[in-house]
Amino acid sequence: MPSAKRRLAVIAASDSDLLSCMKTLDPKLAVVHPDDALLLSDHPADAYAVLGGTEPQPLLLPPPVRTFIEREIAAGKRVFAEFTGSIGHVYFEPPSSTRYLRLAVAAEGWLEGEPRGALIDDQCGERLRPHAFACSKTAPLLSYVNVQAHDRIQAHDEEWSPEDEDRERALWFEQNGCLLVCAFRLATFSRARHAPHDRVRKLVRYILGWLGGQEVPDFEYPRHYRLAAAVEPLSKGLRAPGSEPGADEIRKAAERALAWVERAGILQNEGKDGALEGLGTEIDYTGRQRISRIRRADCIGELAFPYWLHSRVSGDARSDRISRRLTGYVLDHYVCRDPGPLYGMMRWTDEAWGVCYQDDAARALLPHLFRCLYEGTSERLKDCEDVLLFLVRTTGTDGTRRSRTDNNLLTEEELERLRTTPGNLPSAHYNAYYYAALCLAYRLTGRELFRETAVKGLSSIMAVYPVTKREQSQTQELCRLILPLTWLYAVTGSEEHREWLYRAANDLQAFAHESGAYVEWDDGYLAAMRHKAGEGESSLLARNGDPVADLLYSNNWLPLAWIQAYFVTGDRWFRRKWLDTVRFMLGAQIVSSDPQIDGAWARALDVERMEVFGSPADSGWGPWAIESGWSVAEIAAGLLMGLLEDELLPLHAADLHLQKKG
């Protein structure tokens, strides 16, 4: 006969996700505050959970309570101790961040269906590193590891030394299996967004089953967020064959994104004071995510794009005002107006005041250049020309510009060197959108210098293609080439340039996933940004074949790029690619009661799980990073521009004429 269920008592100072699960299983659960826990001695339970992960500091039980719990353990009763400063013989170093660490299944067979090396992310949580001499020699169930991997550690990475197991242990048994020690914050696993959810759910079930002495039935575990694909009647973001998102659905997704910009506190004073960069990847145990309060010219300028397009789609005058304010904020405050060779230099951020990245500057300008194109206006076009002329003056003889310039280093000699020697940087990451902006500016102004520079630069990239200077991945380079190659063809009508566009677009299909996303891939692993965790900017890609999509560096560029390629070429194949990407983006949008994240898109997406999950190695922009410009603005703008097909496609009649002539 099955054993009787143990009576469980919980010692906790606050409610939590883990405690909520326990209450679901036992509505009459005894819960006491640590200060009052000695009351349990009058009505002893069969098992105890001591939950410390809801408070700023690890829980230290008052000595009388500690003595009682220790006696219960010695009597053979089961105790689960989570984020406690000391229990049994074990005590710990001070709490430390797990920003670049990951939990790994360290032993086979205990976590249902999960192999040794399976990874769990606690999203920049906190751990208590045990003093090794105080621990038993039992092998841990979970250990902390620092690896560049996606879902699990590969076979040749799976060796944990005994010393590693002692020092990095995170979940393990003590005292003849009666004490289960959890040395990290688990209590708030949902609001802290531990991932992947199915693995975390199994972990919680295991702990509750061990405490209760019997298997725990599966039930609805708390979810702080879901992706729209899991909320809407979709399956992994997929629709029935032949169906496509409707205009109302696309518009709703874009409007939810703009609502996030405002609810999350990104938009400042209706755009009069610009906008903030977005959210950092770090999530604390309360579920609050770090806000990046830097003002970046690129993010501010990019946010002007969806607001302007929304005004065109909806007739909303407020959206148009916000867009104009954001563009004005960039052009009024981030462009150097000092007479001399630095005139027109666009500053990167309010912090990196003397730094100029050409691709970031270009993306700050592109929304206004498109406005000028489609509205037939020249308002502030001269300001955009000034910025591009500075960039051209500091571009090499091969049409490529070095990754960035710093004003304090731009002596007369250095300026001369920049314009008289090759830049030697055939990289879409650093230069592609610079060329797109040059092509658009040529269309608007007729300045041959802009077109010549774009032709020269993109020719340098395509001369070495596909082995360009990659930063994040090959996928990123291809995604980032579609828009500039589109506009190169638009301003030259060259059959060779048309072939370049189709080559890049077709090559990208090798990385297409059924969800509509393009997964990260890098032939030869040539990308520079594959650093050890925490040592610099880093790709999400650990190994080719990982089912991970990047919505900060790769997929985010495609909604706008595909629809522009369709407008310029008239080829409905590009429109189908736009619909595939839109279908994915609609499914990948975050749905949550938390206004800080609802309606946004995070950087890393596991396209098999349709969940935010990926390597946290990047020192600045981890899996949960949400960029207001690069991700949310670019995606929302691409969604909205497609809704203006009937209005905008005819304006490209000259481009279509070039195609037919070719």
Q: Could you please describe the fold and organization of this structure?
A:
The protein is of the alpha+beta class and 662 residues long. The chain has two domains: 8-224, Rossmann fold; 227-661, Glycosyltransferase, CATH 1.50.10.10. The chain is 40% helix and 11% strand. The protein has 20 helices and 22 strands. Strands 2-1-3-4-13-12-11-8-9 form a nine-stranded mixed sheet, with helices on both faces. The protein has a three-stranded antiparallel sheet with strand order 16-15-22. The chain has a two-stranded antiparallel sheet with strand order 5-6. The chain is elongated.
Kindly report the average pLDDT value.
94
What proportion of the residues form beta strands (DSSP E)?
5-15%
Shape: elongated
- The CATH topology of the largest domain corresponds to Glycosyltransferase
Termini gap: 82 Å
List the uncertain runs.
Answer: 233-238
Find the structural class using helix and strand composition: alpha+beta
Strand order within the widest beta sheet: 2-1-3-4-13-12-11-8-9
Radius of gyration, taken over Cα atoms and rounded to an integer in Å:
28 Å
Return the domain count. 2
Summarize the biggest pleated sheet: 9 strands, mixed
Helix share bin: 40-55%
Would you count the extended β strands for me?
Answer: 22
Could you say what the CATH architecture of the largest domain is? Alpha/alpha barrel
